[in-house]
Request: fold
Amino acid sequence: MAPRGGKRGGGGGVASGSGLLHWLGLAFILLIADQFTKVLIVGTYRLGDSVAVTSFFNIVRVHNHGAAFSFLADASGWQRWFFTVVGCVAAGVILWMLKSHPGQKLFSFAMACILGGAIGNVLDRLIHGYVVDFLDFHWRFLAPLFPGGHFPAFNVADSAITVGAACLILDELLRVKRSS
Reply:
């Protein structure tokens, strides 16, 4: 990744410390929302249950033993620990990046979203051995890509990671535009 341009959050002191706490607070709120919704799903639904909410949205209970789009879900079990380690390493790198750039709002927002989501899914792997997914969107136009037009089920952590990744791309595009 290109070096971060623009304003720096400072090398220490009160301003950068409070900025870091702000972003850690956001990550914590996302983590709590993720874990709370998963506790509700696990306490209410059995594996495989599905309740139609709208014509294009269901609440389901799915266990994902892999990563995004169930990547490596059928592996022999090693993937649980692999993705747990990857999530922990990513969290450490993100913490370092947040500490280094707390004043860069869009960048830090993106990192905080990814951090909260990553920790949420790591906790699932540690507690359950899989990630609990429950948001099931389906549209006919998706049928050529996904069985029955059902996008793979996901959760609040996955949503936070996706929003964070999109904001990270936007931040980089804006940085490149400012430097040209």
Summary: Residues 6-15 have pLDDT under 50 and may be disordered. Residues 5 and 179 are 8 Å apart (CA to CA).
